[in-house]
Automatic annotation (TrEMBL):
<feature type="binding site">
    <location>
        <position position="163"/>
    </location>
    <ligand>
        <name>Mn(2+)</name>
    </ligand>
</feature>
<keyword id="KW-0464">Manganese</keyword>
<dbReference type="Pfam" id="PF01546">
    <property type="entry name" value="Peptidase_M20"/>
</dbReference>
<feature type="binding site">
    <location>
        <position position="369"/>
    </location>
    <ligand>
        <name>Mn(2+)</name>
    </ligand>
</feature>
<dbReference type="GO" id="GO:0019877">
    <property type="term" value="P:diaminopimelate biosynthetic process"/>
</dbReference>
<feature type="binding site">
    <location>
        <position position="104"/>
    </location>
    <ligand>
        <name>Mn(2+)</name>
    </ligand>
</feature>
<dbReference type="GO" id="GO:0050118">
    <property type="term" value="F:N-acetyldiaminopimelate deacetylase activity"/>
</dbReference>
<dbReference type="Pfam" id="PF07687">
    <property type="entry name" value="M20_dimer"/>
</dbReference>
<feature type="binding site">
    <location>
        <position position="102"/>
    </location>
    <ligand>
        <name>Mn(2+)</name>
    </ligand>
</feature>
<dbReference type="InterPro" id="IPR036264">
    <property type="entry name" value="Bact_exopeptidase_dim_dom"/>
</dbReference>
<feature type="domain" description="Peptidase M20 dimerisation">
    <location>
        <begin position="186"/>
        <end position="280"/>
    </location>
</feature>
<feature type="binding site">
    <location>
        <position position="137"/>
    </location>
    <ligand>
        <name>Mn(2+)</name>
    </ligand>
</feature>
<dbReference type="GO" id="GO:0046872">
    <property type="term" value="F:metal ion binding"/>
</dbReference>
<dbReference type="InterPro" id="IPR002933">
    <property type="entry name" value="Peptidase_M20"/>
</dbReference>
<dbReference type="InterPro" id="IPR011650">
    <property type="entry name" value="Peptidase_M20_dimer"/>
</dbReference>
<keyword id="KW-0479">Metal-binding</keyword>
<protein>
    <submittedName>
        <fullName>Amidohydrolase</fullName>
    </submittedName>
</protein>
Length: 401
C-alpha cells in the first residue's frame, strides 16, 4: 500500500476532527457548525473558500503551480441521519435523535486530509475543487449545489465521489462501470372508501380490502412486467388504516419505495403502479390518489473515468485489493445528479466488519444506517491518499483519456 506519507502523520489530528463531527451531527441543510469547521480548516491551509452553495455547502479551490486547463472535482457529503445513536463511547452523538450513521463525518475527514496535502504541496498543474455537500440523505443537496452554480461558477471537468462500505475489508475498494447504485423513488397511495360499522360492512365501502389486494398485486410488477435481466425492487414499507377494532375506516394509505438501475424500467414500474392503483381501487368501489416521487436517478459511472480510477487504485493498494466489477447496490445516492452533469466515478472504500469500534459501541452491527455504526478512522489516510493520487494523475494526463 503506497500511502501519502504526510497524511499518515496527520491521521490522529484528522481523526480528532472526524470524531468531533460525529459527536455533533447535523441534519440536511442544518450543517452550519460542520460547514464552519470545514471552511475554517480549508482557510487555515490557504485554500480559497466559497460558501452557501446548496445552503450550507462549501467549495474549496486549490490551484496548482500553473494552469494547464485541467480541473477535477472531489466530493464528500456532510449531513447526518435523524436517528438515535446507541453507542456510548466518548465521541458518540451529543444531539438526541441525530447520528452520523452513514459515515459522512469520515467522508468529510478524508477529503479534508487530501485538501491539506494538495494545498501545502501544490505539486500539480491545473485546479482541484474540493466539494463538501449538504443534505445527501434524501434531501437532494447535490441538486441544490448544482442549481446554485456548482458547475457554472467552477469549471469542473470531471467529478469523483467515494463512500465507505461496511463488510468490505479495510484496504479494499469496490467499483464498476455503469450503475453502481440504484435510483431512489418513493410512492404514496391514498384509497378512499366509505366508513361503516365493522358488523355492517355492506353499509360501507372498505378501503382496507382494496389496499391489501393492491399490496399483493404490486409485487406482480417486478415478476411479470420487468425484464428479469434488469434488476428492480418494489417494497411497500407502510400501511396505515383505521383507529378502532369495530370501525371500517374511510381511508387507507400505502407507502413504499422503488429502486432500479435504469430509467426505462422505472418508467414501466411507475406506469404499472398507477394503473393497478386506480383499477383495483375502482374494482372495490373506492377512489384513489397516487403520488410518485423520483428522488435520485441511478448512480452511473462513466467508463473512461472509472478505468482511470481503477488504475489509480491498483497502483495505490495493489490489484488484489480492487474489485473493478463489484456487485451494485440497490441503495441510492444523490451524487448521481453530479454524474449526470459531468463525467466521473463513484466507488466504495472498505470500512471493515466493525472490529475497530471502541468499547461502548452498541450491540448492533457496524452497518450503514444502524444505531451501532461508527466510521473506521483507519480509512482516513487510505481514502485521502486516493484523492491526492487521483487528482495529481488526472491533472497530469492529456485531455484524450
Amino acid at each position: 500500500m503506497k500511502l501519502v506519507e504526510p497524511i499518515l502523520g496527520w491521521q490522529d489530528e484528522i481523526a480528532a476532527i472526524r470524531r468531533d463531527l460525529h459527536a455533533h451531527p447535523e441534519l440536511a441543510y442544518q450543517e452550519n457548525r460542520t460547514s464552519d469547521i470545514v471552511a475554517q480548516q480549508l482557510e487555515s491551509w490557504g485554500i480559497e473558500v466559497h460558501r452557501g452553495l446548496g445552503v450550507t455547502g462549501v467549495v474549496g479551490v486549490i490551484p496548482g503551480t500553473s494552469n494547464n486547463g485541467r480541473s477535477i472535482g472531489l466530493r464528500a457529503d456532510m449531513d447526518a441521519l435523524p436517528m438515535q445513536e446507541s453507542n456510548t463511547f466518548a465521541h458518540a452523538s451529543t444531539y438526541p435523535g441525530k447520528m452520523h450513521a452513514c459515515g459522512h463525518d469520515g467522508h468529510t475527514a478524508m477529503l479534508l486530509a487530501a485538501a491539506r496535502y494538495l494545498a501545502q504541496h501544490r505539486d500539480f498543474e491545473g485546479v482541484v475543487y474540493v466539494i463538501f455537500q449538504p443534505a445527501e440523505e434524501g434531501h437532494v443537496g447535490a441538486r441544490r449545489m448544482i442549481e446554485d452554480g456548482l458547475f457554472t461558477r467552477f469549471p469542473i471537468e470531471a467529478v469523483f465521489g467515494m463512500h465507505n462500505w461496511p463488510s468490505l475489508p479495510v484496504g479494499k475498494f469496490g467499483v464498476c462501470v455503469g450503475p453502481i447504485m440504484a435510483s431512489s423513488n418513493y410512492f404514496t397511495v391514498r384509497i378512499t372508501g366509505k366508513g361503516a360499522h365493522a358488523a355492517m360492512p355492506h353499509m360501507g365501502v372498505d378501503p382496507i380490502m382494496a389496499a391489501t389486494n393492491l399490496a399483493q398485486a404490486l409485487q406482480s410488477i417486478v415478476t411479470r412486467n420487468r425484464n428479469p435481466y434488469d434488476p428492480a425492487v418494489l417494497s411497500i414499507t407502510q400501511i396505515h388504516a383505521g383507529s378502532a377494532d369495530n370501525v371500517i375506516p374511510d381511508t387507507a394509505e400505502l407507502r413504499g419505495t422503488v429502486r432500479t438501475f435504469t430509467e426505462e424500467t422505472l418508467d414501466i414500474i411507475e406506469q404499472r403502479i398507477r394503473e393497478l392503483v386506480h383499477s383495483i381501487s375502482e374494482g372495490y368501489g373506492c377512489t384513489a390518489d397516487f403520488a410518485f416521487d423520483r428522488k435520485y436517478p441511478p448512480t452511473i459511472n462513466h467508463p473512461k473515468e472509472t478505468a482511470f480510477s481503477v488504475q489509480v487504485l491498483k497502483d495505490l493498494v495493489g490489484p488484489e485489493n480492487v474489485d473493478a466489477e463489484v456487485q451494485p447496490a440497490m441503495t441510492g445516492e444523490d451524487f448521481a445528479l453530479m454524474l449526470k452533469e459531468r463525467p466521473g466515478c463513484y466507488l466504495w472504500i472498505g470500512n471493515g466488519q466493525g472490529d475497530h469500534r471502541l468499547p461502548g459501541h452498541g450491540e448492533g452491527p457496524c452497518t450503514l444506517h444502524n444505531a451501532s455504526y461508527d466510521f473506521n478512522d483507519e480509512l482516513i489516510p487510505i481514502g485521502a491518499s486516493y484523492w491526492v493520487q487521483l487528482a495529481r494523475r488526472w491533472l497530469a494526463t492529456a485531455h484524450s483519456i
